[in-house]
Design a protein that fits this description.
Blueprint: E1 3-4, E2 16-17, E3 44-45, H1 52-56, E4 62-63, E5 70-76, H2 81-99, E6 104-110, H3 116-129, H4 134-143, H5 155-164, H6 169-178, H7 182-194, E7 202-206, E8 212-216, H8 221-231
Parallel strand pairs: 5-6
Antiparallel strand pairs: 1-4, 2-3, 5-7, 7-8
Helix pairs in contact: 2-8, 3-4, 3-5, 3-6
Length: about 230
């Protein structure tokens, strides 16, 4: 499993076909400059405002092989119930069967719609990324999930998680205090808005030809498998 630098793809998609699959989906929203207004669901996203960078920029480092032919992009909120369902019940099978075999790479993007602690958790993960531990911190966050807006992702607990995975606490704390990665988090939320997302998790499967398939919610592994197999 390789945590390579973030993927950068500059090509503009001339036309993107979106497949909608509705399942468990969180639709709440927060304040603090990251509020997302509810927007109508769409089936076609035109070329005027959507580029490949909308999907893959302003996110995590890649989980998997950099040259894997299929990219899975997740827009998630660390406090989101169905995001946690995906992590606990589905992601491991995707990693084992598709990421570790070099077929799929994963990018996680922030879509903070639950509350202020969601934003703090995003900062925690990006600050961990400065030490090459984004995915370990990401996994630790979801492994400690206990609900929405109940304090499990407080600043105190985020610090405990950072210590648990062995981060340099001086550097991580300085990053958190300065809000070093505020812009990337804001940009990721703006990307979600451009895609007219109304909840989390939302997934985009991008094949080597630039075809994009969209899934709403914590879909069963079989749904992802069917799409991955059809695109390989």
């Amino acid at each position: 499993m390789i945590h390579a630098p973030s993927l950068a793809i500059g090509a503009i998609i001339a036309s993107i076909t979106i497949t909608l699959v509705i399942f468990g989906f969180n639709g709440s929203f927060n304040e603090q400059g990251l509020s997302i207004e509810p927007t109508p669901k769409i089936e076609q996203i035109g070329p005027a405002k959507i580029t490949m960078n909308t999907f893959v920029s302003n996110g995590s480092p890649i989980l998997g092989e950099h040259d894997a032919p299929i990219t899975l992009v997740e827009f998630g909120d660390y406090q989101c119930h169905y995001c946690n369902v995906f992590f606990q019940s589905i992601e491991e099978d995707i990693v084992k069967n598709y990421v570790e075999t070099g077929k799929v790479k994963i990018i996680f993007k922030d879509y903070n719609i639950i509350g202020p602690d969601s934003i703090k958790a995003s900062h925690g993960a990006h600050c961990a990324n400065e030490q090459g531990e984004f995915w370990k911190y990401h996994d630790t966050l979801y492994s400690n999930w206990t609900g929405e807006n109940n304090g499990w992702a407080s600043s105190e607990n985020l610090e405990i998680f950072a210590k648990e995975i062995g981060l340099d606490m001086d550097n991580w704390s300085e990053c958190m205090i300065k809000g070093t990665h505020s812009q990337i988090i804001l940009n990721s939320n703006n990307d979600a808005r451009a895609l007219e997302l109304t909840g989390t998790p939302a997934f985009f499967v991008i094949n080597s030809d630039g075809k994009v398939t969209k899934l709403f919610g914590a879909q069963p592994f079989e749904v992802f498998k069917k799409i991955f197999d059809s695109e390989s």
